Every structure is written in structure tokens, then in C-alpha cells.
Amino acid sequence: MSRDLDASTATKTFTYGGTAEYAAPERWRGLPATYKTDLYAVGCIGYELVAGHRPFPGPDDARLQHQHLQVEPPPVPASPVLARWIMRLLDKDPDARHQDAQAALAALTAGATVSGPLAAAGLQRAQRRQEQAAAQASTKTAIAAIMSQRRQALADLGDTCAAAADSARRNGGALGRAKIGYLNHIDHFDGRVIRTIILDPDRAPLVKLAFELYATGDYSLDDLADELYDRGLRTRPTGRHPTKKISIHKLSDMLRDRYYLGYVDYKGEEIRGRHEPLIEDEELFDQVQEIIESRATAKERRRVHHHYLKGSVFCVTRSKKPSNTTTPTSSSGQSSSPMSARTSTP
What we know:
Layout: H1 11-17, H2 25-28, H3 35-51, H4 61-70, H5 80-89, H6 101-110, H7 117-170, E1 182-189, E2 192-199, H8 204-215, H9 221-231, H10 248-256, E3 263-266, E4 269-272, H11 282-297
Antiparallel strand pairs: 1-2, 3-4
């Protein structure tokens, strides 16, 4: 381990010529090696002999450099005298180590822990660093335990909320924002908060009117949306959108929704809800559904001029490909098929 004190070794030379696991901090800084550099290596070996592993595991050169320069090794599982002796050899400050190998051997033999004020200061620094490392490890353990408890508490809260929501749906309750025509309402009873759904005094009459007008068959969805807008039906404002005219898509969904009859869906099963039905006449609701289905089947589109056959009669031959069969003709050469005759409408 001994070498010329005047010799210097560059970092690259050390990297390729030494053993990084036993290199002293000054060697990682590119400083010349001294007797105390070898004493540091002796401390690494002594630590490994006592603990069964190296003080700094690495595993690569970059991490070894950081550990030798910044990290204090874990406490040595040995007697206090031997542990202090090894930790003094592993001090980051060369001046805090023994003066030479003979002084180190004498300290170990005599059971001495420090020699002089400088060595005592180095040992105190090492002890403080060990205490700080132990405190940091304890803090990390406490934080990990708190975070684990927090995650478990959040998971339990999520399960409780899910169970409460499922119970509310099972009992006919509704979750989230109320449908148009209804309002979310909060009651306070005996120190408890009770969330319910009530009729919207402004919009509920207009929603009911929408079913009645559409059941007459005189309104398309566009006409009905315009009529309801003129009568004052608007969507409820949100934090991002003001009130506006209800769209025909929302209007179509509303006319099909059995929620207005007082029913809710629970896992694919229709059950009676706890809210007040807005449409009490099921015949009215069924009539609306028949009109919706008939217009969807007839592929009816909105036109300016109404006709009593609109949506009921349409040509089925325009979409078919011409047939290869010939149509019988009369002696005059004209087709005898009734479809070939053109009629004029008065």
C-alpha cells in the first residue's frame, strides 16, 4: 500500500489502476495518495471483515464516488472500541484519521478511541453524521408509514363512497347533476345533510309541455326546440357555459328518458325512483315514443311545406339495381307495366 509521497496520480490513472471500492475520498478528488489514504483502505477492509460486506456497495463507479465522498457508512456491528476505530479510519477528512499505520495499530491495541484534539473533532463529526443519517432514515420510515396510512385511508374512503352510491342507486336515488326539469336540493335534518332531487319550478312545466306538444304530432324536434325556447326553456348555467337553447339531441334524449316517469336504472334493471315523476300519464309518454319510432322508421325529414303523405309513401325502386329481366311490351311497343305510366297530380 505504501508509495512515494511526492508522486501524484490523476483521476483517470486511478480509475484504471486502483480498486474503487477501497479508494479514499481524496483519491476521488484527484489528490495525491498518502499513508492516510492506505489507512482508509484498511478501514474499508476492516469494515468488510466485521460486517460481511463493504461499507459502500456501489455498484458502479459513479455511485461509489458519491458514497465515498458524501455518504456515511452504516454503523459497524462490533464492539464500541472496534467500531470507533474502524469509523475513524473511514473518516472523510484525512487529518481526522490516525497519523500512520503504527499509530492506528497502537490505538487498536490500547483500546484508545482518539488521539489529540484534531482526531477527537473528526470522531465527533463522524458521530454527528451517523446520527444525522439515522435521523434521516427514521424520518423516511415515518413518512413512508404516514403515506401508507394515507393511501389506505383514501382507499377505504373510496370503498365507503362507492358503497354509499350503490346503496343510493339501489334505493331509487340519483347521483350527480339533476336532469333538466329537476334541481339538486340539500336539506339539513338532525345534524345530517340530506341530498334530494326536487322539481324545478321554472323548467318542469315547460318539460311537461314538451311531451304534450310532441304527442300531438304537429311538431318536429326543431319546431319543438324553437317553441320551447320562445316560451322560456333554457339549459341550466354552468361554470363554463351560460344558459342557452336546448339542442335537438338533448331534447330527443329527454323525450325518451323514463326518468320523467319516475324510474331509474340500477345495474340494467328499472326500479321506481325516489324523485317525483314529472310525467304522470304513461299513455302520454308511450304516445311520444310511438311518434319518435314512426318518424325514425319513415326517415322523415323536416320540410317547409307539409303534405299528408309525407313520410308515409316513398319510392323503393330508386335504390335497386336495374333487373336483367325484360318487361312485357304491348303491340305498340310500350311497356305494359303499371309502373311505367306517369300520372299527373292535379
